[in-house]
Amino acid sequence: MTKRLFSGRSRRTGSCEVPEVLSETAVAAGTTSTSAEPKRRVSGHLLALTGALSAIAIAAVPGAASAAAVISTTACNTASLTQPFLPWGDATPYELVPGGNFEGGLAGWTLTGDAHTVAGGEPYAVDGTVGNASLSLPAGASAQTPLVCVNAAYPTFRFFGRDDGLLSSVLVQVVYRTPVGLTVTVPVGVVALSGSWQPTLPMLTASAVEGALSGGTAQIALRFTALTGTSQIDDIYVDPRLK
Length: 243
Description:
By secondary structure, the protein is α+β, with helices and mostly antiparallel strands. Helix content is about 15%, strand content about 35%. The chain has one domain (about 5-240): Jelly Rolls, CATH 2.60.120. It has four helices and 15 strands. The radius of gyration is 17 Å and the shape is globular.
């Protein structure tokens, strides 16, 4: 499975910074080369991830090969859209996942290992106002979002993160249920956080495959697990536009 690793350093885009991404090959060789074309990298990783996910899901679902012909690209809900990552050169409209700014209750969220909300969040007011809360993940803790509707129109997601200590990293996974009730968990990347709030680069939902194997749409959740150190995450958004 292809994983996307964030180096902990950042590159400047205009007046803002985004974390650098290490390719899988670069990590294996012990180098620190970075990608200058994150959107092209997303497209390549999407092909690899959807291929792997197809193999898992088709093996688990009888008749999935015929169902895979069904791919919906229309939005599967009417949630409002914003452009939270515009200051970082991303003009794509995004949808906030339920409770994804941690300003209210966490209905539908699953928290383990002392994951909890804390005061303070990303300072950029990407949803219109500076938030008062974020989610803290001590090492070993995890948080899983409520289920959200996805199809081929929801290929990527992004969020904000920072470390609350040295060497903080977060494993990010997509969790979905097959039509026969099986739960499939797919790791999509490990984020190495820095000491300041920064947005991640786009990460993949593989929604085209998941939706195709479920008659056009599927329900997925995003799971965040702190591997090392204590991490904070905030403002989790799903991209509702097919690239």
